[in-house]
Amino acid sequence: MTENTGRPPGADDEDARGEPPAEPSFTELISQPANPSTPAPPSPLIEPVLPPPAIQPPPALLHPSSPAIVPPAGPPVPRVEDIPTEAMPVMRELAPTEAMPAAEVPSDAATELLRAPSPPGVGDAPIDGDVDGDALDAVFGEQNFREYEPESLLVSPTPPPAPGVTADAPQASRLDRTQRTLLWVAGSLAAILVLIGLFFLGTRIPEWTAAEPEPEPTVEPIPEPEPEPEPDPLEGVPDGVPLPAGEWEWSLLRGGECLEPWVSPWEEQFTVVDCAEPHAAQLILRQEFPEAPAEYPGPEALAAPLSLICSSPDVLDFTAAAAYDDIQIQTAYPVTAEEWDEGYRDFFCFISRAGGEPLEGNLSLVSPVVGGDEGAGN
């Protein structure tokens, strides 16, 4: 038993044939296995036709493409194939160029204002009719056109001189400027010379106005009085006798003088007393060294023979000296080479008592040196 659906027979076939198939849902797409994609054949390399080279920045270098990443299994996704690339040259060598002469362009010469033709309908010309030939000649006649010779753009025409100004005016202006400069320089030099002259004049004014210096009074040197000659200490003393009592230089002693007090044979001054009075010492002999050498022999060589000479019985009165048991002999002589070179060649023999007791009377047997000897040394 068939169920009548109210549709005519053959309607299902028509629906099956006429209706388009329904599109699969998202769930059906995911559940279907992925069809293996067949890689498209690589397109043939077509060398691009480049325009003529021009000066432009070089194209950026393209990095080599990385391998394609295979997406996970899923719905078919259109695959983008990597197109092979090729490194292009940065810049091609430019073709040599040649400098061309500049085109001559006519300069802006003076132009002539032309009267524009009257529009149609103005004046005597008919609106729809032909234009009168006299009107065309008046507009485009040869008398309305002028021919000019072409001139270079680099040379500008010299403007005509202004009325009343001659061509020599710039030169005269330059001459006036030069003359003014020279005048300024000359004036400056003259001013400097004047200042220099005033400076030197100012330095001379004090000399001209200064009063003459008064002559200084000459002071006559006061003549110094001539020093009075020192009195001769030996004046009035006869030769060949001992010096009288008094203070005497050691170099003036003659021999035989009795001395009081007594210190040493090397004193600079001695006090002479009368031998009849008690005295501490006596100079019994003053004599020059026998056979004195020219060069200083030394103090030891000079002192060696003096003990025998001074104690000789021809010098000392042993009879008078026998009253004393402590008689001592002391000598003096030149002790430096300087004294020897100056002429001091004498020696002196002094006697005294070792205990310091005084002596009485004259103990010398030798006559005194005649007149003394100031050149003898101590």
From TrEMBL:
* Segments of this protein annotated with the region Disordered: 1-81, 210-239
Provide the leader sequence positions. Answer: none
- Give the compositionally biased regions (Pro residues): 36-61, 69-78
Keywords (alphabetical) are: Membrane, Transmembrane, Transmembrane helix
Membrane listed as a keyword: yes
Top-rank taxon: Bacteria
Would the keyword Transmembrane be found if you checked this record's keyword annotation? yes
**Residue ranges under compositional bias (Acidic residues)?**
213-233
Q: Where are the transmembrane segments?
A: 181-201
Q: What is this protein called?
A: Septum formation-related domain-containing protein
What organism, scientifically named, is this protein from? Microcella alkaliphila
